[in-house]
Design a protein that fits this description.
Blueprint: H1 59-79, E1 91-100, H2 101-104, E2 106-117, E3 120-131, E4 138-145, H3 149-152, H4 166-171, E5 175-180, H5 195-200, H6 212-227, E6 233-243, H7 245-256, E7 262-266, H8 284-290, H9 313-318, E8 324-330, H10 338-353, E9 377-382, H11 390-402
Parallel strand pairs: 4-5, 4-6, 6-7, 7-8, 8-9
Antiparallel strand pairs: 1-2, 2-3, 3-5
Helix pairs in contact: 6-7
Length: about 400
């Protein structure tokens, strides 16, 4: 995807005070809440130095050269490359509609998004609630749901879950959309013989072939393909949201598909928002051992070799620039390593600086339940365990509100 004509998302109607972040020290992975960051070198690769050794000092150079380099490094070494973008025969079918959902507060739609490839066909079901009574199209939060659909994204609302508080989202003036990731491909290691892999993997797989995280991200883009056609949705203000493995997916979806105006990564940890270098808890060896189908073959070669990766996760965060990015952590989620999730936002910030934007504000790891939302990268550390809660959603919406929803 080219970035030569990149434009700021319409989501932003005003810019924060210009506080360009041009350089930040490499930071330690062991910080205490509200403690100033330490200048300890993690030897992170620099997102603003090209493979040829040239320093990137303008947004034009980032968009023309370096962004494409970084994206390609992630495809080659971690997530793999999808063999197809939008299928030529992608179809949308509204299979259910009700204008009086949520006690008349929303219009519900269920949309079957289907595709066909050389190896077969597939579909995902998008559940969508659009607030009634608005005078203009609604901005939208799209959840990549990695938990059982019936218990978490029930379209009837007979079963409600804080994992997707659709009523609260609608009450804030946002459309609430969600799909179940297993509709795209099941979360299992079956040698890539099911779902979209079966449909589109026509060539023998290589060490750079896409893994399941990339496949789910592909599914998020197909959901977006529908959302941009719906007259009730503001096509230029769609945020993609994910928790845990879904948070990893949301980051990759936002990196690959620049139509997403905001990216939200909740408790995504290893190979999500958290830096691999200096990380505690889950490391590259652990994640590839437990979930060998999530990433490409090349990534497995970096077990216990984090420092040899040509990228780190701050560079994935940087690929979202200049769009809005929100990273969330939890105090009891040591496996994900919240401090390294925070540091990714810190080290992505110089790329936002190219656009005259402040990325993540402050140089101290924040106290629990004290969101940092002053720049174009938001962050909070929620008290509690690995989960996606109504508190998290409230923070995401506060951040989007601040950035000019109305």
């Amino acid at each position: 995807m080219t970035t030569t004509s990149f434009k700021l998302p319409v989501w932003r109607f005003h810019l924060p005070a210009l506080a360009v972040v041009c350089a930040l020290p490499m930071l330690a992975g062991s910080l205490s809440a509200a403690e100033p960051v330490a200048a300890v070198d993690l030897k992170l690769p620099d997102p603003l130095v090209t493979l040829g050794g040239e320093k990137v000092t303008t947004k034009e150079a980032w968009e023309k050269t370096r962004r494409a380099e970084v994206l390609e490094l992630f495809r080659k070494n971690i997530y793999g490359r999808a063999p197809v973008g939008r299928p030529a025969d992608l179809k949308f079918e509204v299979i259910d509609s009700a204008v009086d959902a949520m006690g008349g507060k929303a219009t519900r739609k269920q949309v079957k998004i289907s595709w066909r490839g050389p190896g077969g066909e597939g579909a995902l079901k998008l559940v969508l609630f659009i607030p009634n009574g608005l005078t203009k199209p609604a901005p939208c939060f799209l959840l990549i749901c990695n938990r059982p659909a019936a218990a978490n994204i029930d379209p009837t609302r007979a079963v409600k879950s804080p994992f997707w508080p659709a009523e609260e989202i609608v009450a804030r003036g946002y459309a609430a959309a969600a799909f179940y990731n297993a509709d795209v491909v099941p979360d299992k290691h079956d040698e890539f013989k099911s779902g979209v892999f079966k449909a589109f993997d026509t060539e023998p797989r290589t060490a750079e072939s896409w893994g399941t995280i990339a496949a789910w991200a592909w599914g998020a883009s197909r959901a977006l393909d529908y959302l941009v056609t719906d007259a009730g949705i503001d096509a230029k203000r769609v945020a993609v949201v994910g928790h845990s493995r879904g948070g990893k997916t949301a980051l990759w979806a936002g990196a690959e598909d620049e139509r997403f105006a905001m990216v939200v990564s909740n408790d995504s940890g290893s190979t999500g928002a958290a830096l691999a270098r200096g990380k505690t808890g889950e490391k590259i060896r652990d994640i590839n051992r437990g979930f060998p189908h999530w990433f490409n073959g090349n990534y497995k070669t970096f077990a216990d070799r984090e420092e040899e990766l040509p990228v780190d996760q701050h560079m994935l965060a940087a690929l979202i620039a200049p769009r809005l990015l929100y990273i969330a952590s939890a105090t009891e989620d040591d496996w994900a390593h919240p401090k390294n999730e925070f540091l990714s936002g810190v080290h992505a910030s110089p790329v936002y600086g190219l656009y005259g934007l402040e990325g993540l504000t402050g140089k101290a790891f924040p106290n629990p339940d004290a969101p940092v939302q002053g720049g174009s990268i938001g962050y909070h550390l929620r008290t509690g365990k690995h989960n996606l809660t109504e508190y998290d959603w409230g923070c995401f919406m506060d951040f989007a509100d601040k950035e000019g929803k109305n």
